[in-house]
Amino acid sequence: MYFCDRFTSFVALVTFGSQVVLAQRQTYWDLSPFNTPLDGADTSRSSFSEVSATGKNPVKRIAIIGAGAGGSSAAYFLNEYAKKNPIGPQLEIEVFEKSDRIGGRVYPRFFGQDHEKYEMGANAFIVDNYNLMNASRDFQIEKEANELGDSTLGLYDGNEFVALNDNSWSNQAAFYYRYSWGSFRANRFANSVKAQFLKLYDESLPPYRTVEEMLKRVDLLQYLFQTSRDVLINEWSAGPVYTDELFQAISRNIYASNSSLHSLAGAIALIAAQGSYTTVGGNDQFFQKYLEHSGATVHFNSPVTKIKRVPGDSDDLVWNRYILEAGGERISGTFDAVVLATPFHQSDIKVLNLDLDLEEVPYRTVYVAVIEDALVNPGFFHADAIPDVIFGFNSSESFTVIGHSPKTRRANIEAVEPISMEWLSKLFNSTLRSDQVTFQTWKAYPKMVVKESDAEEIFPPINLGPSFYYVNSVESAISCMEVEVMSGRNIARLVLDDLKA
């Protein structure tokens, strides 16, 4: 999903104004004013702020595993909600991060003398992502719209460009003729899904305890049981040419999947392609700020290896507390609640004294490369000249998108298979030095496969056990930064409700 900045204006050109405007959208989840940003905050320290343990209110200790979007937002909103309830428990929040940085699947890098930012991980958010938009405003994080500008683009099928949107009027006319009607119909579908999804921001509703409950609440569950291709062609008359070409370019760009992905993910991909933002200094700023304002202590280089459910105090026979091990050493004391904010089967965490049998959710591996001081070879594409942005829209191509600039002599590539130096030498018609290429490989998001409607459990549970919560349970329905934040926020409400109970 991480070439949205190269793509969104192009998609907007062929929607013919089909986006809906929701007049009341800014009334949802706008907790402004938040705390003002910390001036000169030192984000390298292990503890962002002191947590007061004075007063008569009981102190509850919360462990959060993972300092990405879900973990940082859970910490932040736990603190925000606790502050709004002065008679509730005081919280001691500790975040355990296995690496030496904050951000999870966000990987900002800066290249060249012009210090151009390229996000090699989670890239974009949209105007309707109210949590991130609010954070950008309240934490004074500078954002910029992703715009295509004067860039040209083309859809490549492995042999030739089937469509070009460049400086040729004839190519532009052919492009719009080929895709405009299908794009109009597809975006009507996407906007109908968006209108339902935005209802999830209404905090007058109670927090949800299962992903199924969340989706049923806004009438979106049924989209998990059909492919995007079936819905677009059979229900919205977008046509096979649009669906198999332009839509599949979008779905491969956003979710590294062809049009067989479930139709909720397909709608989310279309929404993301309508227009998006990124931050000027890197999207990890959101999660840095969440933690700075959370009152949490952050432990870097602390991979949690074991979570054990134990009884409480001697007069408390309820098994509702937990002990943790990190790096092979037990963390002192017990925790009243645990929030797991990293994919369970990628964590290598052992859970003891809980009957936990989670089906593994397979994730897509995305391969990214940034190449400097090199020019893409048009002959690789059997052409004399090539557009600035090239989408490999079918499965015969391992790359999903290539963006290049003859002016800066820099290229960005995303692929669903490993990017080899041998393949790059063909693409650039030259042998590249290792210092010209920066690689990033990461497990980006779950495979958005169609779900079985009669399955006993479609998603992993949010409650893995008493006072034990799982942020990533929602990811195989919708995977993006904003939804991780929404999940962290929902779990913050659950934790405080359960602690009161």
Keywords for this entry:
seven-stranded mixed β-sheet, 501 residues, six-stranded mixed β-sheet, alpha/beta, globular, single chain
Uncertain runs are 1-54
Cα radius of gyration in angstroms: 23 Å
Number of strands: 21
Profile the largest sheet. 7 strands, mixed
Oligomeric composition of the shown chains? single chain
Class per helix and strand makeup: alpha/beta
The average pLDDT score comes to: 87
Beta-strand residue percentage: 15-25%
* Outline: globular
Strand order of the largest sheet: 7-6-16-17-18-15-19
| Annotation field: number of helices | 11
CA distance, first residue to last residue: 40 Å
The helix content, as a percent range, equals 25-40%
Structure report:
Strand 3 (108-111) and strand 4 form a beta hairpin. The protein is α/β, with parallel strands linked by helices and 501 residues long. The radius of gyration is 23 Å and the shape is globular. The longest helix has 29 residues, at 169-197. The strands form 5 sheets. The protein has a 7-stranded mixed beta sheet with strand order 7-6-16-17-18-15-19. A 6-stranded mixed beta sheet has the order 9-2-1-13-21-20, with helices on one face. The chain is built from 11 helices and 21 strands. It starts with a helix and ends with a helix. Helix 4 crosses helix 7 (240-255) and helix 7 (240-255) packs across helix 8. It has helices at residues 4-13, 69-83, 130-138, 169-197, 211-217, 228-235, 240-255, 263-273, 284-292, 421-428, 481-500; strands at 59-65, 90-96, 108-111, 116-119, 143-145, 153-156, 161-165, 277-279, 297-299, 304-310, 321-326, 329-330, 337-340, 350-352, 363-372, 389-392, 399-405, 410-415, 437-446, 463-465, 468-470. Helices cover 28% and strands 21% of the residues.
